[in-house]
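dude i think i finally got it to work??
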Amino acid sequence: MSLNSSMDKVLERRREVEERLSASADMANSELAQLARELSDLRPICDQIEVVRRIEAELADALLMVEEAGEDADMLEMVRAEADLLKVQLPEAHSALQIMLLPKDKDDARNAILEVRAGTGGDEAALFASNLFSMYQRFAAKHGWNFEVMEVSETGIGGYKEATATISGNNVFARLKFESGVHRVQRVPETEAGGRIHTSAATVAVLPEAEDVDIRIDESDLRVDVFRASGPGGQSVNTTDSAVRITHLPTGIVVSQQDEKSQHKNRAKAMKILRARIYDAERARVEAQRAAERKVQVGSGDRSERIRTYNFPQGRVTDHRINFTLYKLDRVVSGEALDEVVDALVAEDQARRLAEGI
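look at this
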């Protein structure tokens, strides 16, 4: 489809949505909200279409004036300068519009479940997992998102064996979805007397939060075990069987939750995480199928890959997927400069999809 056809289609869709909203007296609230969201998404695209068409019209007028300037040198110089400027602005406006017209990931606007786990490297890996969890917590605060800690399994020296949180806000999954994978750290551990650099790793999973309507889970497909919650070292921290372990039998996915004193609350949290994991597994399956059909495996979310290295001696962060290096390690780990890494990943994804015509 040509760019002009795409522009016409978007403008026509906006007109249809506006007409339906103006005649919404008998419309259900859910449909009304959906149309309002669609109109909100269409407006910036329509604004950009107007920019493109204004520049195209002004360029056509300027080129006509160049032809009509005749022997008037001053006029010719002025209209040529204007035409040259518009010739630079037009491809930039086209490019911005093409990016806006790319099909959106339907999960971009969702909240996210964040899971961070220590990988290879013992205590140092657990400390690094704690650092990453804190980085995302500060990043969420910077964006005004709500960061709710669901469960933390501590090592006793400030490290995390694993930690889970729900992050809610505007376009959370869109900004965090490229964080899934193996994160590697190179630094001298505090416990290292000889000053040797150690390499350890932690895994990060960012899952789009699923609603009940997205994933139907039959009670008969669940095995629910209850037990007493335990703290570091295995000591009992609760005298009742409030901790919950839920196994989804068809997929084998297991979720445990013990942070709350109430078994009911732990079960609700566990179900929230379970739904997200099942939804993410289905999302990954569909993405892998699409990738196979395109004969291209980009952005598969394969969490066995090492995606990023945090090198403390050199003060750099390198994302290996796009060969992007930033010498702002402290500001990235503090959450302040993580946006620069995220922006580079988003831009690379947009460029790939434009090249593939997705």
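The radius of gyration is 26 Å.
im so relieved honestly
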